[in-house]
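S2.1 Query sequence (Peptide/nickel transport system permease protein)
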Amino acid sequence: MNAAYVTKKVIGAFSTLLFVLVINFFLFRVVADDPFGSLLRGSRVPTDKVEQLRSDFGLDEPTWKQFLLYLRQTAQLDFGLSFQTRQPVWDDIQGKIWPTVLLVGVSAILSMVIGVVAGFIAAWRRGSATDYSITSSTMVFYSMPDFWLGMLLLYAFAVVLPWFPVGGMSDLRSDATGIAAWADTAKHLFLPALTLTLAYLGEYAIVARSALLDVMGEDYLTVARAKGLRDVMVRRRHAVPNALLPIVTLAAINLGFVLSGAIAVETVFSWPGLGRATTDAIRGPDLPVLQALFLLFSAAVIFFNLVADLLYVWLDPRVRPS
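Output structure tokens follow.
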């Protein structure tokens, strides 16, 4: 991998981030041209108080002045004050990053491992009952809206069978510490993580199955069998390593959605992460929080897409630039 190729990809990523930065400012002003009017609707706040709030947050300034202030503050990693809490936006959202990374990260790893293994088994036994069972079941979960699947699991295993809590990240009445506190978090994590794992499973299973089926038609597998290598060794040494390339790329891209991929599920299970913060900010609307979250989500996707680009070239010499 040469330096010119890496530099080109990095510049492309920064250009995309700058484009997102501009869209991030104008998009929410098009959607909500009077955020304080919406935020205080029905609260009987005097008109002069609403005007004072608009002045305090700089919304009475011309759009170009607001845009320049937004660029300057963002360059200093200052996302302004929340309309709802009047606290710095970063202070409001930084504590919600860890719950989302825990939930979506665990789900992404589980779905990737289980989905890839299931896809390889289905491909190796193509046309069998095992293949049909794996492909059909993973596609059923993949086609379901994740919030609907979460509501079904919540009703079954938290309401009908009260095995798990109905929401939250921990029992507010508990004063447990150490291992007991982790066990309590794991119990609250189980249902939302299961929902996301089942929802993401089909994507990895179908890509792994297709990748292995492509490899299984290659001549070197026939040669390996002709040399007397057992079928399981042919699969382990030759077929699976060559089928992993598209899966590595898919996993790297999906990691970019770790921060933003659970808005509906976090809302269903009252999980205190960035997804639920996004829902609360949309209800406002709380423009500074929405801008910060949208920029954070976009930056994560752009970064992991850059990683996927570089990783793909490193893993596959055929696509390396000359």
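The two ends are 9 Å apart (CA to CA). The mean pLDDT is 82.
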